[in-house]
Structure formats: structure tokens, C-alpha cells
Design brief:
Helix 9 runs parallel beside helix 10. The longest helix has 18 residues. The chain is of the alpha/beta class and 396 residues long. It is globular. It starts with a strand and ends with a strand. Strand 7 and strand 8 form a beta hairpin. The chain folds into 3 domains: 68 residues, PUA domain (Archaeosine Trna-guanine Transglycosylase, Chain: A, domain 4, Roll); 101 residues, Transcription Regulator spoIIAA; 203 residues, Rossmann fold (3-Layer(aba) Sandwich), CATH 3.40.50.150. Strands 15-14-13-16-17-19-18 form a 7-stranded mixed sheet, sandwiched between helices. A 5-stranded mixed sheet has the order 1-3-4-5-2. The chain has 11 helices and 19 strands.
Length: 396
């Protein structure tokens, strides 16, 4: 099969040769290979300005990221055989790292499969196809997953906001087998009932697994406040880790209902309370009522999704950390996270430092967290290195 060529402008091959996988629309030589001549998701061979092949991938003429490299140095198109090989490699890594079948099986570019996310919940897989190229390979993806993993069911959670940028429709669909409304997983010795079709993203956030385990050493006998708690990944694990009392705050009533179910699942209902409220308003109200906590956990959604959100997003991170610092007891612990790629580790550290200075308290950073190894970082793609956590001890 001869693939159509996507030719780059002079010197625009440098990032690809340095290891990156993306081609931006302004890097394409549209005089020789007009983007309008391609269909969304169409396989292409990517060439430098002299016609030398850089590799094969797929194109989307309607996206800022006009093409994604999948097979470096080859003219072979992304196909079922390639999917099988990459999935087997990804599965081998996870099976070596984790004791049970609960992990992110595929992390897009980090696993050499741009546009594909797969989370494993025991015998069920939840899949996100985030690009036109992967959507075009949908049947091959499902067949490869059935061959390599042999799941009882595969759910397509193709309702992420990023699909709109690729011109793709939003849908949720059972691709094969049987998929229950919820599944039970285990993480760090804690059981969780996870809603697959109605939960956030794929239903669970495996990326914080190691950070939540790290958190448990700081909570025995402590009063803990878990903000943006979702279904209790942090808060319920804090209770299981020995916290004397945990207050979980979230703006979603259904999420808090699931959280209470998970607290009961772990015999921790007597130590876990919930507060249905906006996080910022809840923190101000708790301060006004004279509350204080030994540990405050902040794991907000991405306040900065795009560069244009940078300024208001930075202000939001600074504000939430300041509000959290106001609620910390003497010798308290602040666990502050950010999943915004555009908000760097240095920026998070600065937000926590500003909060400590604004409250006239001293800060020690004891540990810094990262995404779990089932979310491998592609060293040439900074966007894959997105999660950061600071564990800070605050002195009165």
C-alpha cells in the first residue's frame, strides 16, 4: 500500500527528528501537499522538504495538530498488526508493575499510540479515541484489544471535549461484550465502586495512584479535608490510612453519593463526611465557622486547559491554595496538585509559597509527586508530563 505524502517545509522536520510525534498545520508545505486534499484521519507518509521519509501516521486537515507520527522511519500505515504489537508492549509493562488488572493500559503518545486512551477495570476496558486517525481505526483498535487482553466488555467513552477540536462527534457506546454500570476496583488496599458510563472521563483517575499511597503516611490520627473529592480516591483512602475524620467537598451530588458508597464499602462511613458545595465557597465558609484541619488535600480539575486560560487559571490556583492554607492547623500538611500542563511544577511551588507568605507561615516541601508509571512520559513531548503534586508541611 502506497501512502499519500505529507510534505513539510524546509527545516520543519527538526522536532520530528528530535523525537516528537506531532506536525502542526503551519509546518506543512501546503503548496506541494495541500491539507485540503486529505480526509480527516487519512493515513499518510510524512516527509521532510527534500522528500525523505520521516515515518507514517495520520492527518487531520481541520486540526491545529495536522498530523501525528505513529511509525517512525517507515512507510507502513498504522494497522492492526502495529496496534497488536504496541498493545502487547503496553500490557507487559503494566503486568510487571501492578498486582491487579487495574491501571491505564494505554496512554496515547506515551505508549506510541497517539489518540488512544485505554483504562482497565478488571475484565472491562474503557476506551477513548481522541483523534480522527484513531476514530478511523476504531474497529482495528477494538479487535486488537479483544485479541491481546480478551476482556469481557469494551466501553467507548468518546465524549471528551478534545474530540470537538478534531471535528468528531461525542458518543458513549458498548463496542463489544457486556459492560456493567459500575465496577469494583482496588487501589492501595482500598476498594472502590466506579461508575463507568456516568463518571468523569473514564470513571477513575489512575494517575494519582502513587500520590494517594504517599498521602497515607501523613494522615493517621489526623483531621483531613479533601477538596474536589469526586468519588473519594483521596478522602476514602485517607480514612483507610487511619485518619480520625475526613470531610470531602465536591460540587457534584452524584459523585458524593458514590463517595459515601465507597466509604461504606471500606467500613469507613463513621469517619467520612461530605459537603456538597463549590470548593472556593466551601473553604471560605469553613474558615468563617472556625474550622481547622491537620491535612488539606487539593486535587482540582485543570484550571488551565489552553494557553489563553493561563492568567485566570494561575489566579485560581493561587486563590485555592491560599484558602486551604487558612484552614491548616499548626504543623499542618498541604497536599496540592495540578493536572494543568500549562501550569508548571515551578508555578505550583510558587502558588504554595505565596499562600504561605500571605498567611505568614513557614513552608517545608517534603515530597513532590508525579503521574503513575502507567502514564509514561514521552521525553520529546512535554504535554505528556502533566501531573504534579506538592506535599508541604506548614508551620504556624
Amino acid at each position: 500500500m502506497t501512502l499519500p505524502s505529507l510534505r513539510l517545509k524546509k527545516n520543519e522536520d527538526r522536532r520530528i527528528r528530535a523525537g516528537h510525534l506531532w506536525v502542526f498545520s503551519n509546518e506543512v508545505d501546503v503548496g506541494r501537499t495541500p491539507l485540503t486534499g486529505f480526509e480527516p484521519g487519512q493515513p499518510v507518509q510524512i516527509e521532510d522538504s527534500g522528500g525523505r521519509v520521516l515515518g507514517s501516521g495520520y492527518v487531520n486537515p481541520h486540526s491545529l495538530i495536522a498530523a501525528r507520527l505513529v511509525n517512525r522511519g517507515s512507510t507502513r500505515p498504522p494497522d492492526r498488526a502495529l496496534l497488536d504489537a504496541r498493545l502487547r508492549r503496553a500490557l507487559a509493562l503494566r503486568e510487571a508493575l501492578f498486582p491487579g488488572p487495574f491501571y491505564r493500559l494505554v496512554f496515547g503518545e506515551g505508549d506510541g499510540l497517539p489518540g488512544l486512551i485505554v483504562d482497565r477495570f478488571g475484565e472491562v476496558l474503557v476506551v477513548q479515541l481522541t483523534t480522527a486517525g484513531m476514530e478511523r481505526l476504531r474497529d482495528d483498535v477494538v479487535a486488537a484489544l479483544e485479541e491481546v487482553v480478551r476482556p469481557a466488555g469494551i466501553l467507548l467513552r468518546n465524549d471528551s471535549s478534545g474530540r470537538a477540536l478534531e471535528g468528531l462527534e461525542s458518543y458513549i457506546e458498548i463496542a463489544t461484550g457486556t459492560v456493567p454500570d459500575r465496577v469494583e476496583i482496588e487501589e492501595n488496599g482500598t476498594r472502590f465502586s466506579v461508575p463507568l458510563q456516568t463518571g468523569q472521563k473514564t470513571g477513575w483517575f489512575y494517575d494519582h495512584r502513587e500520590n494517594r499511597a504517599r498521602m497515607q503516611r501523613y494522615v493517621p490520627g489526623k483531621r483531613v479535608l479533601d477538596v474536589f473529592s469526586y468519588i473519594g480516591g483521596w478522602g476514602v483512602q485517607a480514612a483507610v490510612g487511619g485518619a480520625s475524620h475526613v470531610l470531602c467537598v465536591d460540587a457534584s451530588a452524584p459523585a458524593l453519593e458514590d463517595l459515601r458508597r465507597n466509604a461504606e464499602l471500606n467500613d469507613a462511613s463513621d469517619r467520612v463526611a461530605t459537603l456538597h458545595a463549590d470548593a472556593f465557597e466551601a473553604l471560605r465558609a469553613l474558615k468563617d465557622s472556625g474550622e481547622s484541619f491537620d491535612v488539606v488535600i487539593l486535587d482540582p480539575p485543570a484550571f488551565i486547559k489552553r494557553k489563553k486560560d493561563l492568567k485566570p487559571g494561575e489566579q485560581a490556583y493561587r486563590r485555592i491554595n491560599r484558602l486551604a492554607m487558612d484552614l491548616l492547623a499548626a504543623e499542618g500538611m498541604l497536599v496540592s496538585a495540578s493536572c494543568s500542563f500549562h501550569f508548571s511544577r515551578d508555578s505550583l511551588r510558587d502558588a504554595v509559597l505565596r499562600a504561605s507568605r500571605a498567611t505568614n507561615r513557614d513552608l517545608q516541601i517534603l515530597e513532590q509527586g508525579h503521574q503513575a508509571p502507567d502514564h509514561p512520559v514521552h521525553p520529546a513531548i512535554p504535554e505528556t508530563d502533566y501531573l504534579k503534586v506538592i506535599f508541604g508541611r506548614v508551620h504556624a
